[in-house]
Amino acid sequence: MISILILGSGSATPKVNRNPAGVLVNSNNSYFLVDCGEGTQLQLRRYKQSLQRIHQIFISHLHADHFLGLFGLLSTQSLLGREKALDVFAPKGLQEIIEVQMKITKTYWGFPLNFHDIDCKKEAVLWQDEEMEVHSIPLNHKIDCVGFSFRQKTKPRNILQSKIEFYKIPVFARRAIKNGADFTDENGRVIPNKELTTAAPRVFSFTYISDTRVLKEVPVAVLGTDLLYHEATFLSDMIERAKATHHCTAQQAAQFAALAEVKKLVLGHFSARYDELDEFIAEAKPYFANVDVAQDGQWFSTE
Ligand SMILES: [Zn+2]
């Protein structure tokens, strides 16, 4: 399972109940932050999430509503005694912005901070460990901008202990069986894999897309994603404004979700002009039925 906590469902102008962009992503014991609009650290505290267990931060682009909260978050992590390294993935320029602030304010963190410039023109694996892979998704915004796709890695099949004992399966043969091989015992008898193993646990994916004009083609890393967070800054009556500012409407986001064959769609990044969000659902539903709207503090899961 992958779960996400909406830290900010708003866009450039914050509202009392809608913070600028930020999503906390949880997969097993790992926590990732995607975008860090102003006040993100307060949102993490409001929703009782530890700042220190975040070790990777992914910033989609360098518009203020997506990164202004970073310096404050880093400061607090340092004040709270953080020692573990932190990786920040962002389009080129963020490191310079943060370092200017550090230099002028004579601020030094108590932990290693590693910046990684993202090439916003190509899809790439930005980061991975044994369980997860994070891909960049090039988007079409006014400045360099990427989305992120979090994909859990496929696990080997589970080999049954009772079968290991019964067939006396030696240790050296077990890895191949976990990867799907049959087993030949000492008498030459072939035991089919499905008798020896149970299926590996299901793996899930989450994709974050903000901000962009609607993508005409579905990037490979997005196809079939279990949970898609997609910006829907405007409703259809503002489609010209959406085009001019390189954003999407709810209908466009839903059409993209259908094209990408995702399982669930969550709309977010709403313009401050909207108070009620029912209309976003109404516009999206005819094109993609399993749709919801993001609200600050709300969790969504892949299952
Ligand atoms: Zn933007």
Describe this structure in words.
The chain has about 300 residues and is α/β, with parallel strands linked by helices. It folds into two domains: about 1-155 and about 200-300, 4-Layer Sandwich (Metallo-beta-lactamase, Chain A); about 160-200, no CATH class. Helix content is about 25%, strand content about 25%. It has ten helices and 18 strands. The strands form four sheets. A seven-stranded mixed β-sheet has the order 6-5-4-3-2-1-18. Helix 9 crosses helix 10. Zinc ion (ZN) binds near residues 61, 63, 141 and 211.
In short:
The chain is α/β, with parallel strands linked by helices.
Topology:
Blueprint: E1 2-8, E2 22-27, E3 30-34, H1 40-46, E4 54-58, H2 64-67, H3 70-79, E5 86-91, H4 94-105, E6 113-118, E7 124-128, E8 132-138, E9 146-152, E10 158-159, H5 161-167, H6 171-178, E11 183-184, E12 190-191, H7 193-196, E13 197-198, E14 205-209, E15 227-231, H8 239-244, H9 250-259, E16 264-268, H10 278-284, E17 291-293, E18 299-301
Parallel strand pairs: 3-4, 4-5, 5-6, 14-15, 15-16, 16-17
Antiparallel strand pairs: 1-2, 1-18, 2-3, 7-8, 8-9, 9-14, 10-13, 11-12
Helix pairs in contact: 9-10
Bound molecules: zinc ion.
Zinc ion (ZN) is lined by residues 61, 63, 141, 211.
Question: What overall form do the CA principal axes indicate?
Answer: globular
Largest sheet: 7 strands, mixed
Low-confidence stretches: none
The level 1 CATH classification of the largest domain is Alpha Beta
Can you give the mean pLDDT?
95
In the residues, how many domains can be counted? 2
Q: Let me know the number of strands.
A: 18
Task: Let me know the CATH homologous superfamily of the largest domain.
Answer: Ribonuclease Z/Hydroxyacylglutathione hydrolase-like
Report the total helices: 10
What is the helical fraction, as a range of percent? 10-25%
Q: What are the distinct ligands in this entry?
A: zinc ion
